[in-house]
Design brief:
Helix content: 10-25%
Order of helices and strands: HHEHHEEEEE
Distance between the termini: 24 Å
Largest sheet: 2 strands, antiparallel
Low-confidence stretches: none
Mean pLDDT: 79
Strand content: 15-25%
Structural class: alpha+beta
Strand order of the largest sheet: 1-6
Number of strands: 6
Radius of gyration: 24 Å
């Protein structure tokens, strides 16, 4: 069985003996499916490990061609048909790239104003964690293209969790940036 090139990882769970638990394996699989269903940017599959030589899924359809747009369109059409018009199929999967997620960060302006926080400072703190703050441009002698000069935190300090540790000055003293924002995962809009 082929795996998608953007596969991040695999988790294997071993259940205690079925005689020692109240829930059977199929119920557990359904519980896990429900728990992970609908998370943006995540495609997950719950499956029982097969005994004997690995054979993959019972139904496999492979599309080949040079027109990527047509392949994606037809692949989605087949997937939709299998999901909506065929009964008894579970964990329908494909090897198309998983849509990513992007984080929508909204600043709570009334709260920031109430605490005396500068909106521009909040924005700068967020930029330092992501693409960086644009400081200027530079054109090397050997090219006609200008290069952006950006300042940002080192890679180990550029995670979403840093929003809880980075503080900005307010009328009430230093306050974490996370006090003024909400983070919401959204499906990333990309291109083929």
């Amino acid at each position: 069985q082929q795996t998608a090139p953007d596969l991040v990882g695999t988790i294997f769970l071993e259940f205690i003996d079925r005689r020692d638990r109240d829930v059977d394996g199929f119920e557990l699989e359904n519980l896990y499916r429900d728990a992970i269903d609908g998370l943006p940017g995540l495609k997950a599959e719950v499956a029982t490990i097969e005994m004997g030589p690995p054979v993959g899924k019972e139904i496999q359809i492979e599309l080949n061609g040079e027109d990527l747009d047509m392949l994606f369109q037809e692949g989605q059409r087949i997937r939709d048909y299998m999901s909506n018009s065929m009964t008894g199929l579970i964990d329908i999967d494909d090897t198309m790239p998983v849509p990513g997620i992007e984080w929508e960060i909204k600043v709570d302006r009334p709260r920031a104003a109430m605490m005396g926080a500068n909106i521009a400072e909040i924005g700068t703190a967020i930029q330092l964690l992501t693409n960086g703050v644009m400081m200027g441009e530079y054109r090397p002698d050997d090219t006609e293209e200008e290069v952006d000069i950006r300042v940002r935190y080192p890679a180990e300090y550029r995670g979403l969790e840093q929003l809880d540790t980075i503080r900005i000055s307010t009328a009430n003293g230093p306050v974490p940036v996370s006090s003024f924002i909400t983070r919401t995962p959204q499906p990333k809009v990309g291109s083929i």
